[in-house]
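Objective 1b of the project was to move from sequence-level analysis to a structural picture of ligand recognition. The entry below was assembled by the postdoctoral researcher (A.K.) and checked by the PI before modelling. It contains the amino acid sequence of the target and the SMILES of the bound compound, flavin-adenine dinucleotide.
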Amino acid sequence: MEVKALQSCVEGKVTTATDAGYENLRRELIWNQLTPARYPQLVVQVATEHDVVEAVRFARANRLKIAVRGGGHSWVGFALRDDSLLLDLGRLTQVSIDHAARTAAIQPAVTARDLNRRLAAQGLAFPVGHCPTVSLSGFLLNGGLGWNFNGWKPACFSIEAAHVVTADGNLVVANEQQNADLLWAIRGAGPGFFGIVTQYVLKLYPVPGAITTSNYYYPLQCATEVGAWAASIAGRLPKEGELTIFFAPAPPTLAERCRSSNGFVCIVSATAFVDTKSEATAALGLLESCPVAHTCLEKELNRPTPIDALFDLGNMLWPERHRYLADTLWSNSPPATVLGTLREHFLRAPSAKSLAVFAFSTGAEGNTAPLPDEAFSMTARALLLCYAIWERPEDDAANAAWHRETITALDPFAVGHYVGESDIVADAARAQRSFANANWQRLQALRQQYDPEGLFHGHFSALKL
Ligand SMILES: Cc1cc2nc3c(=O)[nH]c(=O)nc-3n(C[C@H](O)[C@H](O)[C@H](O)COP(=O)(O)OP(=O)(O)OC[C@H]3O[C@@H](n4cnc5c(N)ncnc54)[C@H](O)[C@@H]3O)c2cc1C
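Corresponding predicted holo structure:
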């Protein structure tokens, strides 16, 4: 294998498994500190779209399978695959905004914070991910449950076009006129996509004039009553809103009062993405109707929260440089039952940093309204995400056991999963269960058509952590 030849025709950097610095690089490429024991043979940190083409042609010629990294935020470290050529897109971060057309052409590795700042400066917005460091690359491919995903829909529905390097080593444009089936797949295929997206063209939205948030902190003991009530008001909140129940570490001011619930508190958080203060306060006023309101430990009402400020919540709940196990399920089960089960497990969580997120669909139709026909095709009335979050390697076994038990207890409530945050390594069937059956079948047929020799790693693989 002529690695030197590859290095001479790319502007980026090629690192082989035997080079000094390989192991540091391998670890740095993955955001989760629980780095999988999987070892690419070569890492190509591309600097240009042309580098991607060269690297794909090199992989083909050398019969190497290709894995891709955008921002490295996949919880299961999907980019690390044994014996592969890992194509790291992390240096591709350019953004070009066309204000008149309300579109942005972005390179894949731009982060949520960076894109949002540039757009906000021009009065524009996009449903970027909830944490500032998540890159658009894999987030968009997964579907992209970003801020205001009820109102603006999952972000993949706002992809208007893309540049894709296909398995034959060609750079093609995918839009409604050409390669429309590739565009269909990009809108939700997730980490099983059979090509490399080097540019997205995104549809943008005007920034809502009064993005506003209220938070209520309840004892974990009240979670089932709070859950049943929250389900009853979700449909009356604006579609342009988020309503979420968190089981989260209690803030220092409430730590003492939450000791009996293993340090966790139940937060009801609602954000209205509306244009006026009065619309926001009217909508969020619904949160005062909770039948156990008298048990509320603390509340923060009607705070102005531009998207950049909303990222602070993300940063707090998903701390950097921690070890994570994550899983998700879409559910139509009664929230009180689901949250009751979850509570039993949080009461004995080994790590006080762990987190659960129960996000309701808001607005009259909820997420049960039919989706446009794209690869992204799984939804339900609520999305539950459960994370074990801890710091020390010596706590791996206890947290892994707790997370597995918790997810096993929750699984009967699932109608499906979200490919972007499900543990498709532990349970490969979760990839298929992240799609409607017909959409999954079409994805497999397109994979066969665009990548008949299996150059790209797919959803399924004998992966292990
Ligand atoms: C702190 C945190 C917060 C998050 N918040 C949200 C959220 O609010 N909403 C949400 O929906 N998800 C969220 N996620 C999940 C996120 O969508 C996924 O982790 C996503 O993979 C991140 O994109 P990435 O480019 O960093 O992925 P990477 O880890 O770099 O890539 C994962 C896989 O995606 C594929 N891929 C990525 N980019 C490309 C590309 N350009 N072309 C072809 N294939 C590609 C490859 O198969 C790759 O191996 C969050 C994750 C974290 C860690």
